[in-house]
Amino acid sequence: MTTVLQNGGGPLDQKAEPVSNPRVSVIVPAYNTAPYIAETIASIVGQTYTDFEIIVVNDGSPDTPALEVALSPFRDRINYIVQENRGLSGARNTGIAAARGELVALLDSDDVWESDYLAHQVETLERQKLDVVYPNAVNFGDPMRAGRMFMDAHPSDGPVTFESLVTQRCNVMVSVLAKRDVLIGAGLFDESLRSSEDFDMWLRVIDGGWQIGYHRRPLVRSRLRPESLSANAISMCQHIVRVLDKTVRNMALSPAQAALAAERRAYFTALLRLHEGKRAFFSGDHKEALLALTEANAELKRTKLAIAIVLLRIMPGLLLRAYDVRDRLVFRTSTR
What we know:
Elements: E1 2-6, E2 24-30, H1 34-45, E3 52-59, H2 64-71, E4 78-83, H3 87-98, E5 103-106, E6 112-113, H4 117-127, E7 132-140, H5 150-153, H6 162-166, E8 177-179, H7 180-185, H8 197-207, E9 212-223, H9 233-250, H10 255-282, H11 286-300, H12 303-314, H13 316-322, H14 325-334
Parallel strand pairs: 2-3, 2-5, 3-4, 7-9
Antiparallel strand pairs: 1-4, 5-8, 6-9, 7-8
């Protein structure tokens, strides 16, 4: 069930009168981000480009009372929609359905835009005749990774194609600006996916013949939180494998593309076993850890991992002491 609660200067349960049709609809899915969302919305309100509406989709969030308190200063600026939990894909789809703009901008409810995000994105999309455009981003929130650029860890090199997406030569930063009819034409976000739903979407956009582009200007500040979906390496790998299986099943791939998808599926399956092996090791299940890591390295063929497997066989206690304490703590937190 979905309830639209649009703000009009009064309480959050009062409906606003519609305003003139905006060019851009900014969609902000919200789930358990009450401590951060006011900063997010303030960064939208502060844009130099002003022809936009803001749609906040409360995706059955358990922190709804605190969320609505955080949103109350912006009650005259947002369209607020409450629905039963359908995941990030479902929340974005609800926002797209409610959007009145020809362009849709996606922003996670704990991230922040620079003040010229919309101005630069709209100009780039129009000038380059694109259907989707994404910027660079800078990390914050994690002292160990703060200040690092998204494209340093997740590069984009050359045109965005099926091949560059599947091989991760191009990695789409999720805070995109896109033509609304393109997202609808591609079939919207897959609500059966609770992770990697954006990877699936961009593959379908490219398959539909639309153009995705990017630039390197850091227009987003991306908050790193251990509990975020993208922090769970095991879930991420599982869902990427699902997306690749779906891609092979549903798209008319060339033999070369099908072979590439199979190659990447093998890689991410091995990566999944690597993370499962790490989790088993740190939980004390050395037998399962040895099995998983051995299976992983049959594909990955990493020298350091081969050494770790030998140590795990003969001296697991030494391996545990040798493993970097910070990496162990981060892994334990991010794979719960």
